[in-house]
Design a protein that fits this description.
By secondary structure, the protein is mostly helical. Helix 3 runs antiparallel to helix 9. The longest helix is centred in the N-terminal third of the chain and has 33 residues. The chain is globular.
Amino acid sequence: MSVEKKHSIWAKIILCLTAIFFYLPIVYIIFFSFNESRSLTHFGGFSLRWYEKLFSDNTMMESIVYTIVIAVLATIISTIVGTLAAIGLSRSRRVLRNVVEQVNNLPIMNPEIVTAIGLLMFFSALGLHKGFTTLLLAHVMFCTPYVILSVSPKLRSLDPNLADAALDLGATPMQALIRVIVPQIMPGIVSGALIAFTMSFDDFIISYFVTGNGVNNISILVYTMSKRINPSINALSTLVIALITVVLLIVNLLPMIKEKRRKKV
């Protein structure tokens, strides 16, 4: 057997072991979410018992609603703000653009615990009561840099004369932005929105410090439930996995469907 074939075999083995390491816990959670008994190690038979308990628990349902609402609002706001900021930076001077980009990287590189404490002190100084508003503001704050980071490369690869050409042809600045620039950078906007939604949906540390008044997201709820054995966590986790899988399928399949329709036309 040649050296190249040996390396290929070992590479495949390592790839398989890595995949098992990452996905086996997910399969384990899904499997035991249908367990009849409370045991997390012994399967006592197929049952939807824990899903029924999940949907009948008002606290769990409220946390799911809060998580989805906060994630959607934070994604919309941070995507709009981040996209406009990235477009504005692309038209700014090089020195200003470099400074702002470095500042934009701080929330991404900064440890979440430091950001959480900073936001807690900031909201306390402003006299804001911890709750829905502070949680939403915090999520918008740490999601926006990811949108800017995702949109900026698309703007750098964009022809800088496109907007000027649209203006010369009679388009207003708003029309040039919506009909010319935004469609060209749409992949970056979608990527930034997906990252923002994911970051907001699964955040725990920052959310734990800035929330209050009974406003809890899924991550905080799971943390409180992990102190005692509650198989409903498996059912909740399975639903989250299913939701993320559906979103990923839609995002990946829609461009393929549109491309096939264009080829037919």
